[in-house]
Specification:
alpha/beta, Rossmann fold, Alpha-Beta Plaits, six-stranded mixed beta sheet, 14 strands, 28% strand, globular, binds adenosine-5'-diphosphate
Length: 306
């Protein structure tokens, strides 16, 4: 199929449950081959939005296309052509790895199931686990099998909903390496995550809080647009200092990282005033780049419902 330049192109997507708006007029444009990170606190509507994109749920309002197909009228075709992976890997635990893959191949009605399964086993390095029960695999291998099932029918768009939750850092890194290889082949991915290291591996990001899209862009854009300035403070009495600094005007957040505090604020002059008394010889105050985590914490606090 011809994949359009904008693989996801939706506007005003809205959904309510029981009178409560959980996705509020969201726009999203994702280009071909892009890895697009989707972040935000639990309960913000990420899963609901992803399910609307892949044809599992109908929006109450909004319009647009996914893979060039209309999200309102062509949901069934979208469903066939995307690779969807949810946090619950949806594997059959009492089937072997090969049986799981064969089952998926049948579900998608693939013409040459055997060749497709062989190809994916080779690609994902699943060979030595072929006859193992899926339920007996480690978390990392389960996840790899889930990704294999998700890409077996060679979708051009992956919608991955917290695919790495609860998986160790090595397996998460392998997973992201795979996603980057796929992106290099022109596959587009929308991935929700809570992990900052994963957010940093995305080409672009969107941050949603309680249904509203609060920020989007590349990592540098988000950091710049946040307007936050950050300092580290090290020296004696950090525990008490953290509490005390948190109450000073100009300090929007304080967090301990090892032997220093990270102190951030949006009003740079006020922040410097707050830290002035710590330039006392006993403490060290240093300006450092603001991290993505600080930006997201700031967005989360400001986006919290009243
Ligand atoms: P996230 O993926 O960001 O954690 P969700 O999309 O899962 O957020 O949930 C957003 C809100 O919608 C939550 O308050 C959740 O309880 C509610 N919600 C999700 N699905 C349903 C449903 N089928 N029926 C009722 N409420 C739902």
């Amino acid at each position: 199929m011809d994949v359009p330049e904008l693989v996801i192109d939706v506007r005003g997507i809205t959904k309510s449950f029981g009178g409560k708006v959980v996705v509020n007029g969201l726009d999203m444009q994702v280009r071909r081959g892009e890895i697009y990170g989707f972040l935000g606190p639990n309960g913000s509507g990420k899963t609901t939005f992803i399910r609307m994109l892949c044809g599992l749920l109908r929006p109450d309002a909004g319009e647009g296309t996914c893979l060039g197909l209309d999200v309102l009228t062509e949901a069934a075709r979208i469903k066939e052509q995307v690779g969807y992976m949810s946090q619950r890997f949806s594997l059959y635990e009492d089937l072997t790895v090969l049986e799981n893959l064969d089952f998926t191949a049948r579900m998608y009605g693939l013409a040459d199931r055997r060749a497709a399964v062989e190809r994916i086993v080779e690609r994902m390095g699943l060979g030595r686990y072929g006859k193992h029960l899926a339920g007996k695999l480690s978390g990392g291998w389960k996840q790899r099998l889930a990704l294999a099932s998700c890409i077996l029918h060679e979708p051009r768009l992956l919608l991955l909903d917290e695919p790495t939750a609860g998986v160790d850092p090595g397996a998460r890194r392998d997973f992201w390496d795979q996603v980057h290889v796929l992106a290099g082949e022109g596959v587009t991915a929308l991935i929700s995550t809570h992990y900052m290291d994963e957010a940093e591996r995305c080409h672009r990001l969107a941050y949603i809080a309680y249904g509203d899209l609060l920020a989007r862009g590349g990592m540098e854009d988000l950091i710049r647009d946040s307007g936050l300035t950050t300092y580290t403070v090290s020296g004696p009495g950090l525990h008490e200092l953290a509490r005390e600094l948190g109450g000073r005007p100009g300090v929007d957040q304080v967090a301990a990282f090892g032997l220093s505090l990270h102190v951030s604020g949006r009003d740079q002059a006020a922040l410097e005033t707050a830290l002035a008394s710590l330039r006392d010889g006993a403490h060290t105050v240093e300006a450092v780049p603001t991290s993505l985590e600080e930006v997201f914490i700031d967005l989360m606090r400001r986006g919290r419902p009243q």
